[in-house]
Amino acid sequence: MSDSDKKPGFLARLFGRGGKAEPEHESARAPVAQTEADAPVVVDVDVAGSGVPTPDITGDVAATAAATASDAAASEDGVARIPADTPASSSVAVPEQDLPVPAPRRSWWTRLSAGLSRTSSALTTGITDLFTKRKLDAGTLDDLEDILIQADLGVDTAARVAKVVGSSRYEKGISGDEVRAILAGEVGDILRPVASPLVIDAAMKPFVILMVGVNGSGKTTTIGKLSAKFRAEGRSVMLAAGDTFRAAAIEQLKVWGERTRATVIAREQGADAAGLAFDALEQAKAAGTDVLLIDTAGRLQNRTELMEELAKVVRVIRKVDNGAPHAVLLVLDATVGQNAIAQVEVFRQMAGVTGLVMTKLDGTARGGILVSLASKFALPVHFIGVGEGVDDLEPFDATDFARAIAGLERAA
Ligand SMILES: Nc1nc2c(ncn2[C@@H]2O[C@H](COP(=O)(O)OP(=O)(O)OP(=O)(O)O)[C@@H](O)[C@H]2O)c(=O)[nH]1
Ligand SMILES: [Mg+2]
């Protein structure tokens, strides 16, 4: 288990905020006088022509956190930790056995299946119980549907799986393992059409990606992770700090900009988000930047005026480039369950969502909702996030996800 896996709150502490949804910040929304300070601040930390590979940001941030956090000496888990830069001559004596040992990085599959374990163990237990005790009849199939619906897979998927199980004509009954294999097969078939990579069209300079979603879903963190990916592919990246509601949000993006060697366009707190997006796009065009990632403030989908504001950001971006934004990514928190459906409905309508990213498929994720969304909306799912670290974002793989949800081993 990596350090970021063990202490999921440390980035939040670094950025001074928690992972839960926050109320909108009305007070921060007062218009700010157009002063010189309103001019975009360009923080260009790119080393000219450096070609330096993107550093391991998890380690970097962890080191920064360790060096700066006041709890470095006695952290939450009570383990004494030595800041990474403590000189060898330090008088702090820590017995060797107490020093934290860096844990080996767990494989992607291990992290994905662990993240989906809440759902997969509920499904495995429910299905095993049902098919050990009962024969295959209409009542059993109804109960199977209930189990699948409770796991957020949706009514359509539940009916589809039950139908296949029912039509299997197993004279001697059917085992829980066989049912789970059918489940994985059907879920894989539902997910495969939506598992599509985010393709950056290099002809677009910049390729504009707008990140949207409710409060705390993981937009800014995902921007950081994406920025690292694009930089590692050799692309130039600009980040626009379009969440102008909170100063901490602007700082958070600047940190990701520094860590990933991306240019950050920011204004002070309270500035107009659409105006900032406009300026950022013009600057990215002028600079010939490959990818522009625009952050936005979190907003609940039932707050009409905030959703209108988001629609305005999209309209203003189109004034500069009629084809932009080229991707509008809705970032969904995998722990919210059914509420994700309402989020997709409204964000799609108001911001023209082109694809999904599901975060927090670690911890207490309700991953079944992704299956519901796939069968209901058929929107591409580009990435999934299983942690706060920079490499905790992976392209979405339908077969892996389906097998992990059904509690099966990874396909050979
Ligand atoms: N465990 C886990 N935490 C995540 C993941 N993605 C983001 N987070 C954490 O979730 C919290 C919120 O993430 P942000 O990126 O700030 O979310 P946001 O959508 O930008 O939030 P607002 O700007 O307030 O709307 C932070 O503590 C992140 O570190 C993930 O995949 N797994
Ligand atoms: Mg944010």
Topology:
Layout: H1 3-6, H2 10-15, E1 41-43, H3 57-68, H4 108-115, H5 117-133, H6 138-150, H7 155-166, H8 176-191, E2 207-212, H9 219-232, E3 237-240, H10 247-259, E4 263-266, H11 273-287, E5 291-294, H12 304-320, E6 327-333, H13 339-351, E7 355-359, H14 368-377, E8 381-385, E9 393-395, H15 398-405
Helix pairs in contact: 4-15, 5-6, 5-8, 6-7, 7-8, 8-15, 9-10, 11-12, 12-13
Magnesium ion binds next to helix 9.
First CA to last CA: what distance? Answer: 24 Å
Series of H and E elements: HHEHHHHHHEHEHEHEHEHEHEEH
Number of strands: 9
Instruction: Indicate the proportion of strand residues.
Output: 5-15%
Q: How many strands, what sense, and barrel or not for the largest sheet?
A: 9 strands, mixed
| Overall helicity | 40-55%
Rg is 23 Å
Mean pLDDT: 80
Spatial strand arrangement across the major sheet: 1-4-3-5-2-6-7-8-9
Rough outline: elongated
Summarize the structure in words:
Helix content is 43%, strand content 10%. The chain has 15 helices and 9 strands. It has helices at residues 3-6, 10-15, 57-68, 108-115, 117-133, 138-150, 155-166, 176-191, 219-232, 247-259, 273-287, 304-320, 339-351, 368-377, 398-405; strands at 41-43, 207-212, 237-240, 263-266, 291-294, 327-333, 355-359, 381-385, 393-395. Helix 6 packs antiparallel against helix 7. The structure holds guanosine-5'-triphosphate and magnesium ion (MG).
